[in-house]
Amino acid sequence: MGFHFRHSSVRCFAVVALAVVAPWPLPNIWAQTGQRPAEPAVALSDQTATDSEASLSDAMTRIGELEAIVASLQSQPSSVPAQTTSTVDPSLFQLVPKSESPTHYSVYDSGWTWRPSNKDESPFELTVGLHNQFRYTGFSRDEATSIDSAGNVREINNRNDFNINRGRLVFSGYAFDEDLSFYSNIDYSTVTSNPIQLLLGWISFRISDRLSVSMGLGKLPGTWEWTETSRYTLGADRTMATTYFRPSITAGMWATGKLTDDISYHALVGNGFNTLSLQASELDTQLAYSALSWWEPLGDFGRGFSDIEDHPSLAVRLGHGLTQTSNLSTSSAQPGAEQTVVRISDGTRLVEPDALAPGVTVNAFDIWLYSAHLGIKRQGLSLSSEVFLRWLRNIEGNTGTRLPSLFDHGFFVQAGAFVIPQTLELFARGSQVVGQFGSGDEISAGFNWYLFNQRSARFTFDVTSIDDSPAQQSRTGYVAGESGTLFRSQLWTFF
To answer: Which top-level group of life is the source organism from (predicted)?
Structure first.
């Protein structure tokens, strides 16, 4: 550190110190100042005065030497810069070294996205999204009760309520490499028995542009409208026919990709037809197999059923799907837990006692489900349809009785037209289910209003006339055996 004392400062400090230590006459100082101090009360002896003058002379000599040393030090260049305002090193407060640039930055990309600045150095990306389906449901029944094939009387209720049918907190992204992606969908709802649960979740490996392999909790891809997200339905929800025939969600492994540039596929092997909420102890030993493939010969068809993309030329999609599984009885000859979702054409659960024959409860059967679909889009117009064929085979009862096979079939058809491009769409649709225990159908009409000219915010209103519904599902709003008029208005938001 450099010295910045002036000679006069050193001299004054020394003189003051000597004056305090030795209060005797200082002749040399008198000569310099021209002032003589007052005589001391007691006169000093000549010897004392001589000694004092000698000491003072030595002190002044030493002061001169010190001044020379200080001058010499001041003339030398200093390696430490002078600090005139502060003697505290500000680097002491910087405990964590500041990086040249952050490893990640935030951006909106269909959700809040934490994206790496350099993918090679920080190979991790996370997107958090929130999906919410808020719905008003009203239902006016035609009859107060209905009777199923087992002889049970079912009460049919009117409805007038608000609900969150689907809410999703979605986490997605990749880790270690862009080819290793993840997806997690936490569902919340006010209409299901589990208000909060993990609905979907998987890890996916992209092996090539034509093949990705995933493992986790996913959909059996047996039908088109089921495989499409519920955010992209044409009406307020999936049709009655899809609700009746479709498979559900299971844990397993699946492959997705393209066979050619215009043929895509999705194939899965999993625990069962519908095992979302089941534990391992509730599963049988038979796996489920499901696949869906489709062809888009004229270019990209796009997501969903509405032509919000406003295709300038004709877009076509043709496809089909197949699902197969066997359901075994428990060790006590009772129906397995995963069998309870399967219904026959009047809405009765297949495993309901006496459903197929008096005194018999079905406890084992095989399912074969085939579907075929067609979709067309052009300049805001859309037309889509799907046909379902289902066989229930090798049906066994708890008494050891072998029962005849059952065959059900059905379809839906729907059309939409944008009267204001990418904003206001009118639609109509209908579906039907036919089987050996009766039939049911629906006819619906309504509109979609895309609030920001995109799918992320959509208001839907539809009115549906239902006759003997064979389907039941809390999210879609169908109840087995009901007939009447269903009103739904809802707001779908996802960001």
So the answer is: Bacteria
- Note whether 59 and 161 are same-domain residues: no
Residue with tokens 């796996």: 287
pTM for the whole thing?
0.79
Locate 134 and state its tokens: 């808020």
**Cβ neighbours, 10 Å, residue 473:** 20
Residue 140 sits in a domain whose CATH number is 2.40.160.10
Neighbours of 265 (CB within 10 A): 17
Domain count, the chain: 2
Q: How far, in Å, CA of 166 to CA of 294, rounded? A: 28
Distance CA 63, CA 441 (A): 115
Please state the φ and ψ torsions of residue 360, each to the nearest 5 degrees. -120, 135
Q: Which range of residues forms the domain containing residue 31? A: 7-77
Query: pLDDT tens digits, residue range 182-211?
Result: 999 999 999 998 899 999 999 999 999 999
Q: How far apart are CA 388 and CA 373, in angstroms?
A: 9
362, β-bridge pairs: 397
- Residue 152 · residue 144 · CB < 8 Å: no
Do 46 and 168 reside in the same domain of the chain? no
Distance CA 70, CA 66 (A): 6
